[in-house]
Structures are given as structure tokens and as C-alpha cells.
Specification:
The protein is mostly helical. It is built from 2 helices and no strands.
Amino acid sequence: MNALFGTEEKQPAGPEPLFAATTEMEMYTDLFNKMASSCFQKCASKKHKDSDLALGEMSCTDRCVAKYLEAQEKIGVIIQKANEAQAAQQQNLADMQNSLAGR
């Protein structure tokens, strides 16, 4: 109704919150599935068909999950730094283009 009177509310810049939440949930689901698959293949014994993990399998799984999450965190930091550097480079380029256009 605000649009009828010319007082349309501005949407926040950036990704739509629902899209961002959905994407984040998909990312965490993918991370969990890959981690579970990788750690299960490395740690679970295929010789016996027990429904519970043995003590050694549990400690292997704990270490595997910790290493997997640590690696993902390091990768995230590297990607974030690269994205920040790219954004700074794009800003510098835009600033140069604006200064040349102003001449």
C-alpha cells in the first residue's frame, strides 16, 4: 500500500535474507555429508557388523571431524582474505575510473 502513495520502503542492499539462510543451510548440510562420509570411510571397520562403534573407531572419528573442521576453517579464512583483496582491487579500479572520468 505504501507504493500507491509514493513512499515505497527501500529493501536492504545485499542478498535476500531467506536466500542467504537457505544457501547457508545447504552449505552446512553439504559440509556435514562430506565430513560424515569421509570420516566413516577412514574410521569405521568393515570387518564386523556391530551397530555401535568401537572405542578406537570413536576416537578416530573424533580426530577426523576435528581435523576436517579445522581445515574448513583455514580454507574459509583464506577465501575471505582473497575476497577482501578482490573487493579492494575492484574499489581501486572504480576509483581510478572515476578520477579519469572527472578530468
